[in-house]
Design brief:
With 84 residues, this protein is mainly beta. It has one domain. The chain is 12% helix and 39% strand. A 3-stranded antiparallel β-sheet has the order 2-1-5. A two-stranded antiparallel ribbon has the order 3-4. β1 and β2 form a beta hairpin. The chain is globular. The N and C termini lie far apart (28 Å). 1% of the residues are buried.
């Protein structure tokens, strides 16, 4: 999903998070069951992926299909709640 697609989606929150000491642009979908990391972000992570026994086929809101065969465990995410 691109940033333009995220702006058009009414059920997605877009923000920046600190993920393994790198600021990354993220999309949060409260109805999702899994979290995903873009390929360009994976090289910045200081965590080795774990190969899955089965490949997941993920359908995006824009009807794209993504094949997932690795997962990350124990990734540090820094959330800071602020009231404006």
């Amino acid at each position: 999903m691109t940033q333009e697609n995220a702006r058009a989606a009414t059920n997605v929150v877009a923000c920046t998070l600190l993920l393994e000491n790198h600021y990354v642009y993220v999309l949060i979908d409260p109805s999702s069951t899994h979290s995903f990391v873009a390929r360009k972000i994976k090289d910045k992570l200081n965590v080795q992926p774990i190969r899955l026994k089965k490949i997941f086929l993920i359908s995006t809101p824009f009807r794209d299909i993504v094949f997932v065969n690795h997962m990350y465990k124990s990734i540090r995410v820094l959330l800071k709640y602020m009231i404006w």
